[in-house]
Design brief:
Elements lengths: L20 H34 L24
Length: 78
């Protein structure tokens, strides 16, 4: 067997077309990396939106009412 040039489209001896597996592998890797970056950006956006919705309102005009606790402790064993 003799080596075939890297940029050859067909084998110089038998004429069979060469497959470009390296280009395919790099393409699959790039697609996977882009999809992971998309998922990370989507997760950060969802978490940030959830934190904004769960945050208390910063309204200075609203009264700060604390719930009143019981005046005396509850009776035990009654």
């Amino acid at each position: 067997m003799q080596p075939v040039r890297h940029d050859a489209i067909k084998c110089t001896h038998c004429g069979m077309p060469r497959t470009r597996t390296r280009r395919f592998t790099i393409t699959i890797g790039i697609v996977g990396l882009v999809s992971l970056i998309f998922v990370i950006i989507l997760m950060v956006k969802v978490i940030r939106d959830a934190d904004i919705e769960a945050a208390p309102a910063d309204n200075p005009d609203a009264e700060h009412v604390t719930p009143a606790g019981p005046d005396k402790p509850p009776p035990l064993n009654k």
